[in-house]
Amino acid sequence: MLWKGEILLQVGARALAILSALTETPGRLVGKRELLERVWPDGRVDDANLKVQISTLRKALRGCEGLIRSESSLGYRFLGETVSSDPYLDTQRRCFLAPRLLTEPIGRDDVIADIASLLKESRLVTVLGPGGIGKTTVALAIVHRLADTFADETCFVDLGRIARDDQVCEALACALDLPVGEAPALEQIQFALQGRRLLLVLDSCEHVIDAVALLVEQVLTFSNEVMILVTSRESLRVGAEFVWHLEPLEVPPPGLVDPAASAARYPAVQLFMRTAADVSDDFAFDDDIAPAIVEVCRRLDGIPRAIEMTASMVGTLDIGEIRRSLDQRLSLLESDRPVGNLLRHSLLSTLHWRCDLLPFNERTVLRRLALLTGAFTLDAAVAVAADDVTDASVVREAVVALANKSFLIVNHQISPPEYRLFETVRAYAASPREEEENAAERRDRC
Ligand SMILES: Nc1ncnc2c1ncn2[C@@H]1O[C@H](COP(=O)(O)OP(=O)(O)OP(=O)(O)O)[C@@H](O)[C@H]1O
Ligand SMILES: [Mg+2]
Predict the structure, then answer these.
(1) Ligand 1 atom closest to Cα of 231?
(2) Residue with the nearest Cα to atom 25 of ligand 1?
């Protein structure tokens, strides 16, 4: 907080809110009731709380305490002069730095524009999808390209850096530059966000999803203008949430006539080409190589991270070899060759971890759905996955839950909606490890 004479104050969110109210119109008597309502909107305080905060402020003013004058029992007046640019707002309306976009997103222009419009309407949008599909990339593109058209400022919080639910509020308080530890983080956040048209991005929420859901509901309740963009592999399941299922990058359909020219129009192939060209000066995209690359992009489900990783190996490995490995389902992922290592560590370990966290019913249904190669309806899922122990309703619930956790792609454009397993998930669910689980489950039942 600065005013003429420039003193830097370090005070909690409540004291800051009081000072802000007083300095909005220097010299005006601000009544106690007005201050109480503004600073404690839930009304659960008395005059004593106000006195404590005023006393804190005066102490912090060090020698200039006379700037805040009490008016008998009516209220308080600020006697100083504030500078015209309203430095309080300047301090508050800083843009909290989001990471730079390292590469230009391919094939997402419409999605980026649509999500930005949605945020203006519904204030809470979750970009949902499996690891590496491009959620953070889309969120960052919104922040850097469009946020200033609908928000005064942005705050980006990378929750991938924390491990536990109880660290969520503190992470947000830190991102907002609030003094952590002085008051409960949530209260500070509440005051800091009042009246601000801010885009809050909560990135990588899946591992602390319950705490984020709680925080998001509170922030939406106590602020009217904050918009929240969440990226997660699992939805929040709160009332106000609009879930945006982020689709993989589009891959070409089978049977291309003019392979190189036609394939190069599809974003998944464009990403492969761009990455391969970055790592290999010799890389040339022609009709000979195009069908193999299309096949690889398809096998990788159009997932950008998997495509980038595979394409970055083009310098050292023949594309035909990569494709042959992918043909044997997870053989590339489980291979001991150098080409497999990166992918194995990222995709396979992620799949192990995610499947291990699934409740028993969902994991059972997922294994059974691995028999279905194409798209399927809920009825088809029931036909394949239900039995006398796992009945139809359990299967239906499990399919919806698996979609909400990004194991399945849902196509809501058609009725009834169709579901499809990501190819990597399907291959994993049908792998020997999961087969053993199946066998163990059957043995347990006998
Ligand atoms: N549309 C795109 N065009 C080009 N590259 C992309 C695109 N989307 C994602 N990528 C690249 O793919 C990689 C993974 O993207 P990103 O980190 O956004 O995925 P994510 O869904 O947030 O993953 P996670 O769930 O692990 O956080 C990044 O290296 C990113 O640069
Ligand atoms: Mg991410």
Answers:
(1) 22
(2) 131
